[in-house]
Amino acid sequence: MNAEATNHRQSIATDWVCVMAVGNELRGDDGAGMAVGRALREMNLPNLEVFLCGPTPENYVGPVIKSRPGLVLIIDACDFGGTPGEWKVCPMSGPPDGMPMTHTFSLRLVADRITESAEARVWLVAIQPENLAFGGAPSIAVREAVETLARRIRDGRLTETSSP
User: Fold this and answer.
1) What is residue 18's predicted lDDT score, i.e. its pLDDT?
2) What's 62's domain CATH number?
3) In this structure, is the dihedral angle defined by the CA atoms of residues 80, 47, 93 and 112, taken in order, positive or negative?
4) Which of 13, 31, 83, 134 could form an SS bridge with 156, CB 3.0 to 4.6 Å?
5) What is the reported pTM?
């Protein structure tokens, strides 16, 4: 594991962390980020604030900045060509520009604004979707990934990648 990845793992355990849960729950696996956010919110963690952003993360930039986090995790379904339910964790200063997102507003712009104003580190947690059909149910693989991701974030054990 590289030094940057170790840094985000330590931050989850010690810093004030904001989670921006992104996605459209009416489109099957696109709601994965929101499902992780809801699971984390139910855990009532003392060093973590969850923003259920839905399909409009840009509307939550101000509140995230005001909470003065050390680390921001943006959790969203992204088609990076992986196995359904697989996830990748990467700094927003890296790969996300080339990674197709399931919504129209650029998460890079959201991350840049947060980084400039709050001086927080911003990481993307990208979950590979299987089913994005309108009105479709989340796939089993993504539902399992949601549960695992929430537990790993809670325990400060979020790794760079994981297969279901």
Assistant:
1) 96
2) 3.40.50.1450
3) positive
4) 13
5) 0.86
Tokens of 59: 């509307």
CB 124, CB 76: distance < 8 Å: yes
How far apart are the C-alpha atoms of 92 and 82, rounded to whole Å?
Answer: 19
pLDDT score of 145: 96
The DSSP annotation for the chain comes to --HHHHHHHHHHHHS-EEEEEE--TTSGGGGHHHHHHHHHHHHT-TTEEEEEEET-GGGGHHHHHHT--SEEEEEEEB--S--TT-EEEEETTSGGGGSPBSSSS-HHHHHHHHHHHH--EEEEEEE--S---TTPPPPHHHHHHHHHHHHHHHTT---SEE--
Q: Are 68 and 39 in contact, with CB atoms under 8 Å apart?
A: no
Q: What is the pLDDT of residues 77-92, one digit of tens each?
A: 999 999 999 999 988 8
Residue 12 in tokens = 């989850």
Q: What whole-number distance in Å separates Cα of residue 139 and Cα of residue 91?
A: 26
**By residue range, what is the domain housing residue 16?**
3-162
As for how many domains the chain has, the answer is: 1
pLDDT band at 118 (very low <50, low <70, confident <90, very high): confident
